[in-house]
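fyi for ur records
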Amino acid sequence: MTTLFKTHSLGQSRYGNLATALRDRILQGEWVPGEVIPAESALAQSYGVALGTIRQALSLLVQDGVLQRRHGKGTFVSKGVDGASMMRFFRFRGTDDAASMTPHSQILGSRLRSASVQETQAFGMAKGAQVLQIERLRSLESEPCLLETIVLPLPLFGALADADTDGWDDLLYPMYQQRCGVVIQKTQDSLSFSQLNARQAKRLKLAASHPCVLVERQAFDMAGRCVELRTTRGDAFSFKYTAQVQ
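which gave:
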């Protein structure tokens, strides 16, 4: 019988503690992204718990985005977020369905620097730790549409620090996984409105002080750690927001 499952502590349900044990096995690489995990009956037997308990534990991991259920095929380790496209917030001229399009990406620059207080808190880093800051311009049909500042903690993303940015992909999250072994499990976006300064406006071919939508993102890995801070600016006049309430 498997002995990885620890007796649940006070204040934590048995299936919650079991979910933690299963998550740890995923983080240790026992089951890799995209791989099917053992059947519920086999897991229940190995941990010596009822089938209902293992199902509750798996449901927690599905809710967290760690696992995905596929009808008739089983339960798989999530491959993570591919792109979490910022384009869903905008409708640019000449694009009927921008949300489904992948913009071309150009890395304008990257540099190492000391993390700010906010960044050390978000990443759980020590004071004086370093981060990699990336400036990126995204374009649709050769027209600039989004300007981004991306901050990544080191040494987690050390493989990107010395990499040739000319070879970077248009989508970063699959690249994080391939080059750094970091799987983005979920993202959290906060939207507000601001104005472009002269430099930002020039990059986006807009006038200085033009209104923009400011999207501030936190991205989290399979362990629930914040591993990316991203600020995206786009033309406020191209902003689109759709909500359905029933």
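The radius of gyration is 21 Å. thats all i got for now
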